[in-house]
Amino acid sequence: MQVQKAQYIKSPRPSYKLLRHNGSAIPFPAPPPSTTAAGRPPHMAAQHGGSGNGNGNPRLHRLSRVLASSDQPPPPAAALHAHLVRAHAATPSAVVRSLLNRAIRRLSKPHPRAALRLLLLMPRLPVSPDHFSLPFALNAAASLQLLPLGASLHALALRLALLPGRLPVANALVDLYAKCNDLPAAHAALADIKAPDAVSFNSLLCAHARLASVPDAETLFAAMPSRTQVSWNAMVVVYVNAGDVSSARRMFDQMPTRDSTSWSVLIVGYCKCGSMRNAREVFDGMPAKNLVAWTAMINGYAQSGLPEASFAMFREMEAAGIEPDAATMVGVISAASQIGSMELAGWVGTYVDKKRIERNEKVLTALVDMHAKCGNVDEALSAFREIAQPDAYPYTALISGLAAHGHAKLALQVFERMQAQSVWPDPITFVGVLTACSHAGLVDKGLEHWEAMVKYYGMARRADHYACVVDMLGRAGRLQEAFEMVQTMPMGPHPGALGALLSACKTHGNVEIAEVVANKLFELEPRNTGNYIMLSSIYAEKEQWEEAERIRSLMKMKLPFKQPGSSWVENRQSERGRFPVRS
């Protein structure tokens, strides 16, 4: 089977070339005809006391100590090869082979690329891997998604007669193909196992769960001879990823036992679909709440537009003695950005520094968004500069925040840099750009971007884009153009665009257009008091007192009670509370 390298390799190509392997069969020597249980010929085991640690060779002993540690990667390949060649000259092959196989096993998880470099040095000595180390090599290739190399290891396992008899090798092969998303090959590898166990099935089941392949996962789950906790959890995951939370709950209820992953996955599922009441119910019933569950709830409340509940959950987590991580703080930062308080944003930023939270791209992007929305431009720019290669999300957050807080020209400069860096904007980016043009009075520039959305970027204009342009035209006094745009919107009149035009009518004293726009707003938003007050004010400024009183009477008739709003305030001790704000 020929494999297209670019189709499967997700790691950068230079890193793959570092392995110095072209995907062809690895020329390992055939295994010796007779070996002991330790993997060495009988006379070698006797000669070296069965230790295999290189005690008889000082050079190999030093190298053994280096490779025995998984804390640090081994020396560069060229230097390592030179050491091995010199050591091999005075040491039997079995000892070198044992050393490298142990090193591969130890390095495969913390340093998978280093483990594979060791594997690819073995043919040059020449020694070969054993049935203990080859599964670890396959795991290393799977973690890096190096499918061509994994296919070569598959061929090597067949040549060394490790398949289909060695179950750990066969299971690692299924896992390799599953993690590289070559599901037909994974199914074929599973079918070749004469007596598969639950581990054999779980790797493939987890792949179907990751891809939300519900029918395939259900078929595989039904065919399993035995099931582990991983199997049950994978089925909950597949339903959650497919958006079928009801089936996920049914599977959860059928579980013979549950671990922390079982509870956390179901909580994540409810949070994804916005069912925070159900998520809280499951969370409260969780015997031992882990960080994943706390993080899911904090992020779920934030994503559902409930920042107060998100912060309340965060305070509960702190009281329980659970330390947050980067994923947790993304939710907390998002909640702070929705509240919009500069003081609270400053507290959150200080908390991130104090707790030494990893400042990865997601955290930095969230910080940019929070500080920009709260008007702290310097902090937003500082966080943005920390992102090595910002994509559209941090650019958009920065542009939108700058545009909303009186830094329109700076927002447009950031957009120009975004274009220079060949970062493709999204529709939300253009909301920020058009807002910046509106606030800066750059009508012609704004209309250029308006046209570029369709002609250059191929984007469909949304209602919020129309609202920005209507606001831009209205601020410039071009009310007739704005009115015509509102009337020709493909999605029909929108409250955002109509509200912007009504505000412009008040600024420029245009009663005729204001009456038409306000009456439409009364239909779309009959309980929005701002529209009634705005039209009444327009009449009053023109000294049309009877009309002004008529609109106020209409408002009182339709809205006999006016609910107070609410706001958030923080004191110096960072205690947050709600208080009513009368308007």
UniProtKB/TrEMBL annotation:
Gene3D superfamilies in the record: Tetratricopeptide repeat domain
Keyword Cytoplasm in annotation: no
SUPFAM superfamilies assigned to the protein according to its UniProt record, in alphabetical order: TPR-like
Ranges of the PPR repeats in the UniProt entry: 228-258, 259-289, 290-324, 391-425
Example of a GO biological process term: RNA modification
Keywords linked to the UniProt accession: Repeat, Transit peptide
Domain of life: Eukaryota
Region Disordered: start-end pairs: 21-60, 564-583
Molecular functions (GO terms): RNA binding
Bias-annotated ranges (Basic and acidic residues): 572-583
UniProt entry tagged with the keyword Cell division: no
A Pfam family matched in the record: E_motif
UniProt protein name: Pentacotripeptide-repeat region of PRORP domain-containing protein
Organism name: Oryza brachyantha (malo sina)
